[in-house]
Design a protein that fits this description.
Helix content is 76%, strand content 0%. The protein is mainly alpha-helical. It has one domain. The radius of gyration is 18 Å and the shape is globular. The protein starts with 5 loop residues before the first helix and ends with a helix. The mean pLDDT is 87.
């Protein structure tokens, strides 16, 4: 990543985030109603599906915006981790599945215990699972990781430490998710998603750094996380502040589990492989 002055760096970060938010809300205003009209007679989709549609749109906006900003600075997408590591790609993709499942076990257990998730799950339409997996992996996860880890974190690390860059990128990651729920007007939901996204964002930042700033592993974990949450019919709706608190705690524990597993993988295997 090209090195910038502090002033140019923050101009890019702030301008990038503001434009991203404006584009996302513009697309939501005009594109989502059109999609509803074409595929659901103008009616809203089920909440989990509609949320994924909105986030998929966010991801696509993020990818396009990163490309434009990099073109402006005459840089390639590889500078933000958008590259295929032939040596490690398959291992990272396969590894992401058990890591995500293990991270989700305590998260789902806590949310089921406090009835944040439905205790009686209905079978999810296989077509819906395929659609949501595709949206989660190739639009939501890819777009959000390029946006927050690939671009914002990378550009911040040209001047600041990893810790500062991770906190800022994760904070903006949480803020964007909060803004997406603002239209529903539920304060509990917005607080829960702000902190949950922030802590899982910190873990994604660590995964990104651990793989020497390649997006394959954070994208894969992010995509599988969102897909499994859809299968469990998770909805960002919290009835009380206690549920909000438990939802945040569940997300923190899940993020910590993934962090520990990635740390162990890094120290036991990844570091040795990457220096060969």
């Amino acid at each position: 990543m090209k090195k910038y002055s502090i002033q140019d760096l923050w101009i890019r970060v702030i301008l990038f985030f503001v434009i991203c938010v404006i584009l996302i809300f513009t697309f939501q205003t005009f594109i989502i109603p059109l999609v509803r009209q074409l595929f659901n007679n103008g009616n809203p989709f089920p909440e989990a599906l509609e949320t994924n549609l909105i986030r998929a749109m966010n991801g696509i906006v993020g990818i396009g915006l990163v490309y434009v900003f990099l073109q402006f600075d005459r840089q390639k997408m590889e500078t933000v981790g958008f590259s295929w590591n032939k040596k490690m790609a398959l291992e990272w993709i396969l590894l992401s599945i058990p890591i995500t499942i293990v991270g989700l076990i305590p998260t789902v257990f806590i949310e089921l215990s406090f009835e944040i998730l439905p205790t009686e799950l209905e079978l999810v339409d296989p077509i819906a699972i395929i659609f949501n997996f595709s949206a989660a992996m190739f639009a939501i996860a890819l777009g959000e990781e390029i946006l927050f880890r690939g671009y914002i974190q990378s550009i911040l690390e040209t001047e600041y430490s990893f810790v500062v860059a991770a906190i800022v990128s994760a904070g903006l990651f949480g803020l964007l998710h909060l803004l997406l729920l603002a239209r529903f007007g539920r304060f509990e939901d917005m607080i829960a998603i702000l902190f949950s996204a922030f802590f899982i964002g910190l873990t994604f930042s660590y995964v990104f750094k651990t793989t020497r700033y390649n997006l394959i592993l954070p994208v894969a974990i992010h995509g599988f996380w969102d897909t499994f949450y859809f299968i469990f019919q998770a909805e960002t709706t919290y009835e009380t502040f206690f549920h909000t608190l438990m939802g945040i705690v569940a997300s923190i524990i899940g993020a910590m589990v993934i962090f520990i597993l990635i740390y162990l993988y890094s120290t036991k295997r990844l570091t040795k492989i990457m220096i060969e």
